[in-house]
Task: structure prediction
Amino acid sequence: MTENNNNTNKRDSGKGQSSPDNTGQISSKGISRRSVLKAFAGIPVAGIFGYEWFRKINYDNDKKDRIARELGLDKMEFPVQDYGKEAIRDTLRIGIVGFGQRAEQLAAGLGFMHPDEVKRRESNNTLINWLEQEDLHVAITGICDVFDLHAERGLAIANNSIRHRASKLPAKRYRTYQDMLADNNIDAVIISTPDHHHSFMAVEAVKAGKHVYLEKSIAHTEEELNELYRVVKDSHITFQLGHQITQSTVFKQAKEIIDKNVLGKITLIETTSNRNTAEGAWIRHLDSNGNPKPGDEKSIDWERWLGSAPYVPFTIDRFYNWTKWFAYDTGLIGQLFTHEFDAVNQLLRIGIPHSASSSGGIYYWKDNREIPDSLHCVFEYPHKDLTLLYSGNLASGRNRGRVFMGHDASMELGSNIKITVDRDSTQYEKGIASGLIDTESPMITFNPGAGQIDAVTSASGKYYADRGLTNTVINGKQIDVTHLHLREWLDCIRENKIPSANIEVAYEEGIACLMAHRSYLEKRQVFWDEVNRKIV
Amino acid sequence: MKYSKTQLTFLLVLRFIIGWHILYEGISKVMNPQWTSANFLQESQGVLSGFSGWILANSDLLTIVDFLNAWGLVLIGLGLIFGFLFKPAAIAGSVLVFIYYLSVPPLTGYEYTLPSDGSNLVINRTLIEAVALFGLALFPTNKVFGLDYFIYSRQKGTFQYDRK
Result:
């Protein structure tokens, strides 16, 4: 910096002041005012920077506010979840019927996990979220499974009380679900068997006076569904159908958005399932090394597993991959569309469709399956001026999302919300004309964590969220939505309230699914006869 | 060799504008709670792609990297504008920006999904900024036009090197 200092020096020495370059050293007294001013050269730059930054913040906020006002989002009140309050409550004793993969997730939602799983989660740092879960004050006191291995694993999970204040009550294995239902030491049951057992078991459980959490799908036939509906309506028990995605915080925000008419008149809702793996196509009988998973007729009570389904010889394929056959399930409809229907029905309460028509086929997974791997259903709601579409495919993972299409805007609802204003919207005509509203990309995204409008997105700032429907954020914590759904059920049992996936919405869903299934099998459009309450 | 006032002015302007740019890059990241380097790291190709993958695979590490990156940019930007701890700031900035360059170098055969800024062949603006910053570090304008003046002016003998 010789040159600079020389430069300084020239002028400084002109004033007869000491200069570092003259002396090679300096005392504090020797600092000239001019040198000090030069040292602060960055300040005007920082000043301009601050001014420009301030302007930008104001501009962005103002634009966001104007857009929010334009879209009517400023008037919204997003519910704050009441979560994490610990109250002392009596322990409810839960029995679980069918202890496969899904039951393990349900048990974790209740606060019980296998020691091996605890270790695995500890090592990949995901245990902490689970430990932060609210204590639901339950004990798993009964396990019923026809497969010894699953039953034993269930007992190990139920008896692992690593969470604080977890159950000290011992868990017992029941050979049959009837034995479990007859036991007065069980207050409530969770049914997570293959689907063909669901409604039978639920009916008997209700009759035995147990509260029921029934995994979807609700029933395999119309008669079974009607029977279950009647039994639950005549009882005092609390019934909850096993869905969880609508417990996510974004669904509560989406409901507010729809209620405030941000989207305008909604005439089309498109729901999809997009999978492209063997696991996703329900081929699950092999372990990660390609060897068959455990289980044989010695350890599995096959006849009990079949239940009322027609007899077929035991195969490991059928035991693990039962979804592939119509005798036990309705495939994409029962396993995946159920969630989609519930999501839409919880938001719009569309109810039972007037008609359903399905088509599809087995186009990729050409194994011994009966269920289609490509399936498309159209549900008409003429009295609501609405069409619900479902399109499921098991041979392409392209994420087609879940989209609510209104005249004024469309909303893509996944693990977050993206709202795109329609270019020909009437409601937002002025805003679009003035350039305030951009119709080319999503205008508004909602972050599940924040409970408020996040950002006006720019093309480069698009927030691509996948459909991770396992967790939601409450008060900054990652919470398992299955846990929330179970929690709602348990709260309703204790407070004698009606849960969200109650028998009415479960019935509507059951009918919609059976209509879609029948349409696929009979290759025709089927209708709902509202007077006689039956599918025709 | 002496520098004219004009030469000196442009040296300072270069310092200020790079400082401004880096400061705002940092501030915009700090102010946006959703910002993450994950999208950028996912794009990584070439010598640093393994390193990027390693960061992506560790969510805790990614959080730390995001934090250090955003606040590092802010501090470097402030250092450049105010001429405070200028030399370390400029060198750190140069290295950091060079890492950005190396993570997604515009070499023939490397294709990226995120749109690039302009047309680039081997050289892009990121590399130019990294090199310019390193160059700036060699011209310590901070000793006069910066808060570092007070540090150097209090340290006897520090200016000796100016006189060699």
